[in-house]
Amino acid sequence: MKDIIELYFNDPDMLVIRSDYENIKNSYMEIGFRSEKINGKDVHKINRDIVISIQRFHEGVITNLVFSNGQAFRLELLDNEIIPYYSDYIEIRYIISGHLVLDVEGQKALFKEGDVCFIHSKAYHHEIVSESDCIFFNIGIERELFNDAFLSSVSSSPFKQFLRTNILKIGQKENFLQFVPEQKQSEEIKQYFYTIFNEVQRQRIGYLDISKGYIIRLIDHLASNYNYHFSEKESELYYKNLFDTITQYMDDHLANVSMEDLAAEFHFHPNYFNNLIKKNAGMTYSAYLIQLRMNKAKKLLETTDFSIDEIAWLVGYHNKGFFYKCFTNDVGMSPKQYRKKLSENK
Q1: Is residue 251 within 8 Å of 158, Cβ to Cβ?
Q2: 31 exposed, middle or buried (CB, 10 Å; 0-12, 13-18, 19+)?
Q3: How far is CA 174 from its chain centroid?
Q4: pLDDT grade, residue 29 (50/70/90)?
């Protein structure tokens, strides 16, 4: 794929437009964008459901490979012509080679080869071309289509459900989301972007549905195989939400949950869960699991007629003596005494 892209950029017969920013932005209507000033700031607006381009930053020159009515041509700008802007759409970027430096809401962010970046609507940002040397895919997606791509197919994985929900939440804020490959996971990602690129470029019947399907697959693959980094502004909220999601999963699977289950569902090393739980609950994973089980046991003793043996089994204890010990240590009385006290207080 990189060879094909290089051919596009080096094709001597391709139309090349070299102009200043003001002239180029007025031609955006032909390639899916228009730009206007709102409250003194540049705002890019999309006039198609999906718009694609490939950009190259090299030695202070920006080359945009864009398509108008299926025809490819190159737009060239200089570093000093790039200004910060807002957008009314979601941008998804995949770094094919090199490195890209962005300024997003005053926060500098570095993206390297293989990284995927979501730049959300309302994020005031611009490329720092003098510090960048790269080629990357850029996909602009209309917000409603982007949201629909997430909501139309909900994965069975709690982590993927969580990730989708948080991307949508962060989409309402001024922020970005960065995915970094754990290993050599870029080939499949490249194929997703290349397929979307081809579909949008050719615009054959059904291309929007096909592209939306590949966006869904792209997110699922990122959730399974990539590390992810929020901007500093959202990290604390993200990890609190992740802790709550893991807690809910543990609470829903108290009878048989294990650290291995969490690792399989949420794609983290077991040590990560201990650190996350320690930070948010002030205790180890084992102690926190006991607390959740005791809370569930108390609720079952209060609201059901299940026997104590049944309750012990439901919250994950097959050794009645160990369950009694844990319950007594947590509550200060045995399960039988706890239920009796509840009955007396009615």
Answers
A1: no
A2: buried
A3: 14
A4: very low
Most confident by average pLDDT, 44-58, 205-219, 271-285:
271-285
The answer to whether residues 309 and 320 touch, using CB atoms and an 8 Å cutoff, is: yes
| Token duo for residue 321 | 């003596």
Q: Tally the residues of the chain.
A: 346
Look at residue 272 in the predicted model and tell me its pLDDT. 83
Say how many C-beta atoms besides its own lie within 10 A of residue 6's C-beta: 13
Domains of the chain in sequence order: 2-230 (2.60.120.280), 233-346 (1.10.10.60)
Highest mean pLDDT pick, 2-16, 56-70, 157-171: 56-70
Mean pLDDT of 220-245: 72
Give the per-residue pLDDT at 345.
Answer: 77
User: Is pLDDT above 70 for 5?
Assistant: no
Query: Judging by beta carbons within 10 Å of its beta carbon (0-12, 13-18, 19+), is residue 77 exposed, middle or buried?
Result: buried
Q: What is the average per-residue pLDDT within 132-139?
A: 91
Structure token pair of residue 41:
């700031």
Asked if residues 56 and 99 have their Cβ atoms less than 8 Å apart, the reply is no
